[in-house]
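Contributing: when you submit paired examples, paste them exactly as shown. First protein:
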Amino acid sequence: MKKQLLNMKNDNVGDISLDKSIFGIKVFPDIIHQYIRYQNAKSRQGSHKTKSRSEVSGRAKKPFSQKGTGNARQGSSKPPNFRGGAVSMGPVVRDHSFSLNKKEKKLALKSALSSKILEDKIIFIDTFKIDNFKTKSLNLKLKKFDCSSALFIYSDDGIDNNFKLASSNIPKVSILNQKGLNVKDIILYDKIFIEQKSVDQITKRLS
């Protein structure tokens, strides 16, 4: 399959060939959803913690006699029903992440890319090199593409320093190496700009 190749001025400079098995597959929303759950779970800190009966301060001995006081029997001053006592079945430090196999990850990425292609939200750019590092200059270029948010995927060769500096101060605009390409970012951003050199690297990675 072929798509237009543009430059940063939104001018057509040719065509680019895409692997249909990566950019043109059937979209699986459930796999995309599973991958986003996987990403969110992996990013959770899991450091929430309350003190159990073994950790809370207090006496372990009986607070008063078993009988004769008129009170309900108690074995310690640490249970949840006492002020300053432990929390019953409270949260503990844990790892929220779960595993997702390689085939599922690849299929999720392919589905996300194919979904964006169908919506005409992926733009292929010949190069991200720009003349200066002025934010205003880059902002004017982005207005030609009519996007509310943008993610720029660059190749392993690195990104132009002028572009990096100019984009750093624009809200809802991010840059990402193709190695870090993930489903959540693809879905989150309105339009995805992929550098020409990145296409072959993404294709090789997902084949």
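Second protein:
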Amino acid sequence: MNHSASPSAPPRRTRGIVLVSLVILGLASAAFAIRRPLMMSAPRCMAGRWHGCYDTENGVVLMMLVALPLAALVVWALARFRRAAGGTSAWRMSLAEVGMVYGTVPFVWMTMMPGPGAGVVPGRVSLVPLRDLATMGPLGIGGNLLIFAALGFFAPMRFAALASVPRILALGAGCSALVETAQYVLRLDRVSSVDDVLVNAAGAVLAALASRHWWRTAAEAPSGQSRPAPAPAD
């Protein structure tokens, strides 16, 4: 009797539960740490006011937490659709797709918020590496690490082509460079700094290393399954 196939399902299910639990625990811990500033933005956000909610970091984080049940519902719907269609790794791929969007868009939105001199103050650039790190402070460094952390965590789980540290480093640096360029071109009264790119890319890599156990390898990719077997030699 073959007993090798039956134990595979429970470990996969356990890993999926652990992954979801880690994401929820991380969000809950972050919400608890900044609960007081979030509550200051709650009245404006609940009233649907743009000013004081969507144009503030506290308001965006609060709405991100409020949207967590909707994100979980989208993950469930996508996974159910994939399983009905006979797809593999339905939960992992669905969680990765939603996680990339849910965990990246709000932070990019915050980095693109205009300063008080937007449209008036010319764009500023800082191209000397490590010069701005001292002025960021722990909160600034932590925030920059988080901007593309979700992208680094979930992208290699979804795309086999990104399942390597150098590629995630390039992805994080490229996305960060685009954001910094947009800040300069749109004259948002922000400093486009090379240190932001370095810290953003480092955050993506650290998050990718944290999810390495769940990376989607090339062997699991559909393209690898569809390749025909090589013809036998004559």
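If you have annotations for the second protein, write them as plain sentences, like these:
The two ends are 38 Å apart (CA to CA).
The beta strands are 124-126, 191-193.
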